[in-house]
Amino acid sequence: METKKLLEDSGIYLMHTYNRFPIVLKKGRGMKVWNWDGKEYLDFVGGIATNCLGHCHPKVVIAVQKQVQRLIHVSNFYHIEPQIRLARTLVTHSFADKAFFCNSGAEANEAAIKLARRYFKENLGQNKFEIIATVNSFHGRTLATLTATGQDKFKIGFDPLLPGIRHVEFNNIEALKNAVTKETCAILLEPIQGESGVRIPAPDYLKQVRKLCDDNNVLLILDEVQTGIGRTGKLFSYEHSGITPDIMTLAKGLGGGVPIGAMLATDKVAEAFQPGTHGTTFGGNPLACIAALATLEVVLEDGFVLDQCKRMGKYFKKRLEELKKDFPEIIMEIRGMGLLIGMELVRDCAPIVTACMERGMLINCTSGNVLRFMPPLIVTEKEIDSLVDVLEQVFDTLS
Questions:
Q1: Residues near 365 by Cβ (< 8 Å), separated by ≥ 6?
Q2: For residue 20, what is the domain's CATH number?
């Protein structure tokens, strides 16, 4: 089928929920993808921080191929061996004692909100139900996670939203302190706000939030949907701060491109979920869990991928800072951790994304004027240099 026909059918048959670029991607390997017409691109979007090992990593592909011949799906009425192994792996390498599996980051955050409320109401008999989230956050598109998202543009037309969720300024501990009441059950945060332009809090912010939660009998929920699975140079971003949450949510990179979400919690909190209180049909299915196991095996193997992420993150930021010196009239700031990097511009960056795509580079624009780079953790200096060369060409035309 020709690209033109595919694009026509897309307009006819798909709901217009995305402003898609006029290309149809057909295959991918590592950092590269090819469109239907055979044009090659370097992918610095990575499925929005999802293809953490690149496209079609051999270990993930082989694991999925073997599993799809063995068992694709069974109900959670039964024990599922890959799910048990995945839970053990995540618990072993994190603060958590228990895992719950679902299909996406939104579902994981929805489960976290439910668990936090039920923990206080059912286990402790306390009327604590309020969630405090932050301005400019992004937690998902379900009604509850949309309410928790601190960006009004996503909420237009969906009133009334879920009651009991309020927002305060991110990276402002005083605002959080003033917001906590006797009805507050949890504070929900992204360690780094990705969707709003890679916003990184002060080094002691999460420690202060953890203390605030401890002092007020409030749970700390960390949304690591985008920052987890090595994205910031550690398996989980909270490890940089020296604290642990009570609940953590994961998705995106966990499955190496296969849809899966997870909510992790301490035993004390996890006990609030009992049979019948929460569930999912597809969550934790054998196919998704085996993909996640293969992904984690590679990420954790001798620390190679995590070390690669740290080294390439530093190199990437250094090259972008050099670019900033050459184009101070265009670039305002470079910020990021590991391979989650934002470049804030003085102008709308959508045309830059298009210009880079025409030159064989896939990048992302978020929050209007921030270029967000989320390449696979296997990216090399040579590939980073290729992108910076293209950005230099594009910025030259703007200058």
A1: 348, 349, 350, 352, 353, 371, 372
A2: 3.90.1150.10
The string of pLDDT tens digits covering residues 233-287 is 999 999 999 999 999 999 999 999 999 999 999 999 999 999 999 999 999 999 9
| Among 302, 320, 348, residue at a domain's last position | 302
Both 133 and 278 in one domain: the answer is yes
Within a 10 A sphere around the Cβ of 133, how many other Cβ atoms?
25
42 strand-pairing partners: 32, 361
pLDDT for 107 beyond 90 = yes
Q: What pLDDT shows up at residue 68?
A: 98
Structure token digits, residue 381: 């200096």
Burial class from Cβ neighbours inside 10 Å (0-12, 13-18, 19+) for residue 76 reads middle
What's the CATH code of the domain at 123?
3.40.640.10
Length of the chain: 399
Q: Locate all alpha helices (DSSP H) within the chain, ordered by sequence.
A: 3-13, 46-49, 58-70, 81-92, 105-118, 143-148, 173-179, 205-216, 267-270, 286-300, 304-326, 350-358, 381-398
DSSP 8-state secondary structure symbol assigned to residue 361: E
Residue where a domain terminates, one of 250, 269, 302? 302
Do 252 and 351 lie in one domain? The reply is no
Helix, strand, coil proportions of the chain in percent (round to 5)?
40, 20, 40
Task: Please report, as a single letter, which amino acid is at residue 390.
Answer: V
Around Cβ 64, how many Cβ atoms within 10 Å? 20
Structure tokens at 101: 């599996």
Instruction: Write down the pTM of the prediction.
Output: 0.97
Residues 140 and 288 grouped into a single domain: yes
CA–CA separation, 395 vs 318, rounded Å? 17
Residues 179 and 323 in one domain: no
Sheet bearing 32-35, strands edge to edge: 25-29, 32-35, 40-43, 361-362
Number of domains in the chain: 2
